[in-house]
Amino acid sequence: MKELVLLNHNKNDLLKLKNELEDIHKKVTLYDIEHGRDIETDPIEKPALFICRTETDSDTIVDDALKIASENGSPILFILSKPDECSYDRLASIEMAWYIKEPYTMNELKSRIKETTSSAKICEWNSQLINDPVNDILFSMGATGKILYVSPSVENITGFTQEETLDKGLKELVTEESFTFISGLVGTFCSKLKKGEPVKAPVFDVEIPHKNGSTLWVEISINPIFDNDKNFRYFTGTMHDVTERKRIEERFRVAAECINDQIYEWDMKSDHLKWFGDIEKALGYEKGELPHTLDGWADRVHPDDLPEVMKSIERYKESGDSFEAEYRVFTKNGEIRHWKEHGIPIIDEMTKEVVRTIGVCSDITEKIEAENDLKERDEMFRLIAENANDVIWVLDARGEVVYVSPSLEKLRGFTPEELNGLSMEKRFTLESAKLVRKTWNSFFEQFEPGVVPDITRILELEQPCKDGSTVWTEMHINPVLHPDGNFKFFLGVSRDISERKKNSIELEKQTKMLDTIFNLTPIPMVLVNKEGLVENINQACTDITNVSKENAVGLRTGNVFSCVNAYEGEGCGRNKECKSCIFHEIQDETFRTKKSIYKREGSTKVRLPDGSDLDLNVLVSTAYIDLYDEEAKIIFSVEDITDRKESEKANLISKMQAEEANRTKSEFLATMSHELRTPLNAIIGYSQMLQEEAFGELNPKQNKFTKHIHTSGKHLLDLINDILDLSKIEAGKMELHYEQFNVNDVMKNVYNIIIPLAEKKDIEIDFLISEDITIYADKVRFKQILYNLMSNAVKFTPDNGHVTIEATIEENDLRVSVIDNGIGMSAKEQEKLFTPFYQADSSIARKYQGTGLGLSIVKQMIQLHNGKIEVESEDGKGSNFTFTLPVKDTN
User: Which residues contact 281 (CB under 8 A, 6 or more apart)?
Assistant: First the structure.
């Protein structure tokens, strides 16, 4: 530091401070802030340090002092008297400013001046620029991008003066695209600095505007400046005009894009890696995504290859020889590519060290993959030959074994060497050897260069094994010719078919057995192909049709069974009547659906030998046979069931007669019931009049007998009415009279009838109906159904019991449930519940009375309405009778 400049303002007494500074530095001068200093007559010796003493409220003095220091490109030290926190915060945010607060010791002042003068590099630049102008631009820049100092050479390069450049932000000094690039780079750099992470000073190219409107390229190198506490203060840097170099590089890049290889230049000093091809596109990245440093490139190299690549680079740096390496790299989407790199060194003549590398990277993925594929195929063929169960072999024109795969030993026990010592005749059994020799001679007798004889190339041969046994093989023979058409060798494959031979013999046995079963089956059977032609018939079919097997083959089914359609028009299967023929219909369906048919009844008309026709009832079955390697076939079986059908017809007539008799009985009962009702009505009516003493007063005994007569008469009338209803239903004479009515009204009516009986037993009756429900049904019969179920519920429920009636609409049905907590019934009793005249036991009948007809009639009336009834009950726990009726009957 050549000069300490003490800033004077308002004629402050700075004598004491000046004396202190002179004890520290040999040259201390005063600079009057208000009047300034004539730099031309009294120049400041650079590098210089400005010093200013100020108080808390002296913001104007601080601003003036900072401006003077900045204009001179020098740091400034503030001596603060009565400082506050705002003073600290403000000065701490200014890159070129330091401070010390009063009181202080001389040692503290010396230490702070020493720390501040660490920024003297700027001042040294200033002196260099004055004495020795350079073509590079020297500058200092804060962490925010503000230019704190720039050398006068900026005007020679950019056209802008030093004054026009100072205090501008980085964004104003570079193009928009370059600013985006620098912001990310400097931001990352500053972030690492704050974290205390080690970083290298970056070197990069940016595009900056010229005052004349054009742009130029400069190479920027920046270095961070720290204070004694290792805190970052600002950047210093240089800008070097590389516009011409960029033009050359652009031409080089265009040339590089014309080839598939990627050309690069690596500056080892700055660790800047410059690519002349489109490296980002080659690896699937967007422009600017790849960092242009060795570490950035190393991140793309496969981790298994990276250690050896880095060792090669170190050897290259030491030896100065050319560099070659093959390694794998990752693209952005994770794909692996194989690269081959060749680099040549650029050596510094002074230090004799490698300072730069010019190299080329070639994508050899396709070549590597092709080589790997070839290796894999060779290995695959070798593994196939050595591990295949089949024996692969090569024979020359003399019959000598050129090659035979190791599987020979597994198949026959011989090693390849042992087989080569056997003559051709000894490699096969006697009969097979004759066939091989005949085929061999035939081939060479017919062979002409370039023309392969048309002889059998697949032979089934029996060959001896080393242990004396034999094995059957299927041998595939392929002649191989030289390019000139002459015979080269036979390439063959021998496959063990011993099991197939064994299965073939077994299949032959099975076929004979099935033929025997087919012929001995007593039911007539016919084998038919897809064209509808007979291929075989069994003996039973021959016996019934008088058609021999020989004559049946090639006929149609109708011809075999003498169907009348076979004798009419165009013959079997061709007349329109054939479409309804049982044989034709079932045959077409079986082939179409590929499913067998079991015992389908049908009828056919056959022509007898005397020329007359006979109607037959038949039972026809088919079995669909899928033969896989052949076309499918079906087997017909035909049974004459005419006699059985006649028997069934007779049984049906008997059944109808019995039903008719039952109806007659029912009609008789209905008539009798009607005849009985007339005198019963008189008995009931007169007995009621007697009870009412319409003909005079009765004594107690007469009154009791009259009451018995009336009760018994009503009971008998109910029985007759039930019998009459049941008889009508069974006779099919029960007619329903449909009408639209409200279910709620009917339930109220039935309730009024039932309630006296319920009140006698203190039984509570609840109705659960969510809304007014209207249905279309027989109102009288609906009331009868509901009355029967509700009266039963009250009858079989003990005193103080409970009966619930629920009614809901579910989809298109009315659902009614009558639920009680009465005596209930067992599961066995429920099975006969709806049987006429059935009651659980005699004790119940005596206790509760009744005929056992009510529920039977209820069920049949519900069924007449196309409804259903069901019961849920448990002995001793009550019952739930539920019936459903269509809201509107579909009939």
Answer: none
Residue 512 included in any domain: no
State the pTM of this model: 0.30
User: What is the structure's pLDDT at 128?
Assistant: 45
Distance (Å, whole) CA 494 – CA 433:
15
Residue type, 197: E
Q: Is the N-terminal amide bond of 103 cis, ω within 30° of 0?
A: yes
* pLDDT tens, residue by residue, 362-421: 889 988 888 888 888 777 777 776 667 788 888 888 888 888 888 888 888 888 788 877
Among residues 701, 728, 755, which one ends one of the domains? Answer: 728
Instruction: Categorize the per-residue pLDDT at 569 as very low, low, confident or very high, splitting at 50, 70 and 90.
Output: low
Burial (0-12, 13-18, 19+ Cβ within 10 Å), 99: buried
Q: What sign for the dihedral angle of Cα 839, 845, 849, 851?
A: positive
SS3 category, 670: helix
* Same domain assignment for residues 425 and 490: yes
- The β-bridge partners of 361 are 262, 341
User: What CATH number is attached to the domain comprising 871?
Assistant: 3.30.565.10
Mean pLDDT, the chain, rounded, equals 80
CATH number at residue 685: 1.10.287
Can you read off the two tokens belonging to residue 38? 């004539």
Q: Specify the pLDDT at position 742.
A: 92
User: In the predicted model, what is the mean pLDDT of residues 540-547?
Assistant: 80
Does 576 lie in the same domain as 540?
A: yes
Same domain, 488 and 543: no
Query: Are 198 and 329 found together in one domain?
Result: no
Instruction: Answer positive or negative: Cα dihedral of 332, 337, 338, 344.
Output: negative
The pLDDT value recorded for residue 39 is: 56
**Burial per residue of 604-631, b for 16 or more beta-carbon CB atoms within 10 angstroms, e otherwise:** bebbeeeeeeeebbbbbbbeeeeeeeee
pLDDT digits (tens, 9 = 90+) for 70-127: 777 778 888 888 766 666 666 765 667 788 888 888 888 888 887 777 544 444 444 4
- Residue where the block lists tokens 């794909």: 335
Decide if 64 contacts 9 (C-beta within 8 A). Answer: yes
875 and 757 within one domain? yes
* Longest pairwise C-alpha distance within the chain: 166
Integer Cα distance of 282 and 86 in angstroms:
55
- Whether 701 is covered by a domain: the verdict is yes
Total domains in the chain come to 7
Residue 508 lies in a domain: no
Last residue of a domain, one of 640, 663, 686: 640
105 vs 108: CA distance, rounded Å: 5
> What CATH number is given to the structural domain containing 15?
3.40.50.2300
CA distance 583 to 555: 13
pLDDT at 122: 45
Are 375 and 399 members of one domain?
Answer: no
Distance in angstroms (rounded) separating the CA atoms of residues 41 and 107: 34
Helix 854-864 to helix 700-731 angle (10° resolution) is: 40
690 and 761 inside one domain: no
Both structure tokens of 874: 């448990």
pLDDT at 503 over 90: no
| 305 touches 329 (CB < 8 A) | no
CB-count burial class (<10 Å; 0-12, 13-18, 19+) for 276: buried
pLDDT digits (tens, 9 = 90+) for 408-467: 888 888 887 888 777 777 889 888 989 989 999 999 989 988 888 888 889 999 999 989
Going by pLDDT thresholds of 50, 70 and 90, the confidence category of residue 252 is: low
* Chain-centroid distance, C-alpha 239: 58
Domain limits for position 717: 647-728
Instruction: Identify whether residues 552 and 690 lie together within a single domain.
Output: no
Please measure the distance between the N-terminal and C-terminal CA atoms of the chain and give it in whole angstroms: 121
Assigned domain for 511 exists: no
DSSP3 helix / strand / coil % (the chain, rounded to 5): 45, 25, 30
